[in-house]
User: What shape does this take?
Amino acid sequence: MEFDITKHSLTPKHTKLDSKEEEKFLEDTKYRKVHLPKVFLEDPSIQHLKPVVGDIIKIERKSPTAGVAYFYRVVSDE
Amino acid sequence: MKLPPKIKDDIKDATANLNVAQKKIVQDMVEKKYARMRVQAGECVGILSAESIGEPGTQMTLNTFHFAGVAEMNVTVGLPRLIEILDGRKSISTPNMEVYLQPPYNKGKDIKKIANEIKEIKMSELISEISLNIADSSLELSLDKAILEDLELDSKTVKTLLTKKLKAGFKAELAEEFLIIVRLSEKTKDLKELYRLKETIKGVYVKGVKGVTQVLPIKKGDEFIIITAGSNFKAILKLDYVDPIRTVTNDIFQIEEVLGIEAARSAIINEAYKVIQEQGLNVDIRHLMLVADTMCVNGKVKGITRYGIIREKTSVLARASFETPLRHIFNAAKIGEEDVLNSVVENVMINQPVPIGTGLPGLVTKVK
Assistant: This one.
């Protein structure tokens, strides 16, 4: 039986920003992609999103201090 | 001011009995307080974290060996474990898993059978005696009948298993019901070979989850879980009777491999926090979250060592100030590396204001 790892209690929810959201995010935060933390292209938790290098992945972390915290990683292959 | 969801919920709970005007007052006060309590720009949070984890760390017991819970399972705790986590060690000293089970097994159904199925069985456990027949160049393996029955195996399957695992040139055959004879081929009648064969046979994998050396069913809350010594996260998640959602291991690299970097980050926080709580110390979880974030920022878990996150630093002087300074400086000189003096340590070295706190902002003047 193959287990869907995105359902594991340790894995937070990952979503891919579409081009509009991505533009808005970079505009709002004034970040550049090189400054964002990375996630590898082969990372098991994003395989279902079919990522390509340069995509921004939005992560919905459950935080003990803030309830929900959003975190962003850029897909990288190095 | 945008409050985090958890604080919003807390306000809602606390003000349930108040009227609208009062609620508004509370809301305003919380917002004001929250704004004041936020970390200011330029605050050196890394140093605060280091001190906040390091100081209680000095009070931890150095007692590595501790028996967790009920029976004789050995788990590294205290300072050695914390060092292990923060260093990002690839192989940890006492890997173990907490295996949750699907209903109805979590209520105790077949718990012993399941535990036995998870445990890795090697050939040496089935054999009660190995005798070496030098004249005949053969090994006589007497199998333990009780253990075989316990594991629901029979001599025939053991024999086929042996034949499959052994190299060509050896022959295994069933002489009596619980006696297997392994012969060397005609060409290699070497005594040394026979001794080597004995060790190989002992290590042959029979059944179970590879890497799990010990199993221990215990009751946690109102359900049964199985604690294992040795960890094989990937294999355990595939078993039918295991609840894959809650099952965890304490091996952070196995989590990274199977679940990805974000899960590894949560695992680092959980494991480090567990150590600190076990020791009865009080460290704010935010410090651990910062450390875990730093370790995971590049997409792979990097320890806080000279091979891990220190290597990732862009400044030569900052790297040199940690460990092995000469090597870093020589290497930088060889390839002509540049240091833009953006961070703290290098500015301390050359006696300039450091870019933290009030040293962070530059002065902008409007020239008329």
In short: The helical segments of chain A are 19-29. Strands of chain A lie at 13-16, 38-40, 56-63, 67-76.
